[in-house]
Amino acid sequence: xISVGKIKQYTNVLERPLSKGKQEVSLSAFAFLxxxxxxxxxxxxxxxxxxxxxxxxxxxxxxxxxxxxxCHREKGNRRETRxxxxxSFVHSTVWKVLFGKVADSLEKGTEHEDEYMISEKELLVxxxxxxxxxxxAFNCGAFVAGIVRGVLENAGFPAVVxxxxxxxxxxxxxxxxxxxxxxxxxxxxEATLG
Amino acid sequence: xAPVAPRxxxxxxxxxxxxxxxxxxxxxxxxxxxxxxxLEEVDEVNKQLDQMGYNIGVRLIDEFLAKSNVSRxxxxxxxxxxxxxxxxxxxxxxxxxxxxxxxxGTTCSLILEDNPLVDFVELPDTCQGLNYCNILSGVVxxxxxxxxxxxxxxxxxDMLRGDDAFELQxxxxxxxPEEYPYKDDE
Lengths: 194, 186
Hints:
Chain A is an alpha+beta fold. Helix content of chain A is 42%, strand content 15%. Chain A has helices spanning 27-42, 48-73, 83-99, 142-154, 184-193, and strands spanning 24-26, 105-108, 115-120, 159-166, 175-182. In chain A, strands 2-3-5-4 form a four-stranded antiparallel sheet. A four-stranded antiparallel sheet of chain B has the order 2-3-5-4. With 186 residues, chain B is α+β, with helices and mostly antiparallel strands. Chain B has one domain: Trafficking protein particle complex subunit 3 (Muramoyl-pentapeptide Carboxypeptidase, domain 2), CATH 3.30.1380. Chains A and B meet through strand 1, helix 1, helix 2 and helix 3 of A and strand 1, helix 2, helix 3 and helix 4 of B. Strand 1 of chain A pairs antiparallel with strand 1 of chain B, so a sheet runs across the interface. Chain B: This is Trafficking protein particle complex subunit. Chain B: Keywords: Endoplasmic reticulum, ER-Golgi transport, Golgi apparatus, Transport.
């Protein structure tokens, strides 16, 4: 813990030492904040699609920053350039830092070559969220989908990323699947790289 | 039944579920940025952040009371100490020093020893009037209002604006007598 007298006068954000990322806040603090994010955005939209888009935008901003931070801190200023590499970076490194654990699963879509899925039994942001009946398939995981899109796009892998509830047999709550559909150019490039 | 002893902020924080502060910091940053884009005026953003904090405060007080076993504070001085050492600790993992009391014992300052809201943050020239941490003042105000204290909570010093500390001033405006049982209307 830094005592009052020792706090340095920060003039430039880049001159500060980079934190090791071990600091924590209570889950409640995050949940309260996230709830305000959702509630505020609800006042700004007319429909669910629009609400999900706004949450995704907010997440995108987080993703872009976390990519930069993690490449610098964890990967010695290198980033993944291959499809599977970046996917496992998201599934393992990013998930671990943001949510304290590796994601439950990373799978390739069975029907489409360009689709991948990251699934989580209980996504952190959905922990304290229950969706009112009239909001249909709305999923606050859109925020996390945005984070994933932010990481991928800024690493040079543009993709459409969406969050979906998937019912699980024998479980009361559905799991959340983050569906990643890569842009055509990404797959073309992968094919050329061999 | 013997009264349950209040728990220290450290003990509570060690026993609650926690998340990486960076997720919290970056999410808060995303919120502020969204507000700046939507509302355009810095003053409006300050207001909205304060409102969001207030909303959080009125809900958060329940969890605080449930987990801390803190009983009624004898005076505002104790209240301020509890916020600084227990409240801030159990939610944000930080503590503050309480200082600058006025003679009446109704105004004081919390000097934050750390501030997880502002990691990675720098205010651009266009946002100099922004009270980036205004959500926190809102939280304190909201929470205190739920325990019958009307307060005014303002940032006196802000390191993002070039000051040497984060100083939050708490001013007790009035103690609202508890209404019992409930108001009929409103």
